[in-house]
Amino acid sequence: MGRGARVPSEAPGAGVERRWLGAALVALCLLPVLVLLARLGAPAVPAWSAAQGDAAAPGLSGVPPTRVPGPLAPRRRRYTLTPARLRWDHFNLTYRILSFPRNLLSPRETRRALAAAFRMWSDVSPFSFREVAPEQPSDLRIGFYPINHTDCLVSALHHCFDGPTGELAHAFFPPHGGIHFDDSEYWVLGPTRYSWKKGVWLTDLVHVAAHEIGHALGLMHSQHGRALMHLNATLRGWKALSQDELWGLHRLYGCLDRLFVCASWARRGFCDARRRLMKRLCPSSCDFCYEFPFPTVATTPPPPRTKTRLVPEGRNVTFRCGHKILHKKGKVYWYKDQEPLEFSYPGYLALGEAHLSIIANAVNEGTYTCVVRRQQRVLTTYSWRVRVRG
Question: According to the UniProt entry, where is the signal peptide (predicted)?
Answer without folding.
Answer: none
